[in-house]
Amino acid sequence: MATETDTHGETAGHAADAVQGAADTAHGAADAAHGAADAAHGAAESVGMPQLDFSTFPNQIFWLVVTLVVIYLILTKVALPRIASVLSERQGTITNDIAAAEELKLKALEAEDAYNQALADARAEAHKIVAEAKADIQADLDVAIGKADAEIAAKAAESEAAIGEIRAGALDSVRTVAKDVAKDVIAAMGGKADAKTVNAAVTAQMKG
Amino acid sequence: MATEESGGLVFHPMDQFVVKPLFGDGPVYWYTPTNVTLWMFLSVLAISLLLVVGTRGRAIVPNRVQSIAELAYGFVYKMVEDVAGKDGVRYFPYIMTLFMFIVFSNFLGLLPMSFTTTSHVAVTAILAMAVFLTVTILGFVLNGVGFLNIFWIRQAPLILRPILALIEIISYFVRPVSHSVRLAGNMMAGHAVIKVFAAFAAILAISPFAIVAITAMYALEVLVSFIQAYVFAILTCVYLKDALHPHH
Amino acid sequence: MELDAATLIADGIKYAGAGLACTGMGGAAVGVGHVVGNYLSGALRNPSAAAGQTATMFIGIAFAEALGIFSFLVALLLMFAV
Question: How confident is the model over B193-215, as pLDDT tens digits?
Answer without folding.
Answer: 888 888 888 888 888 899 999 99
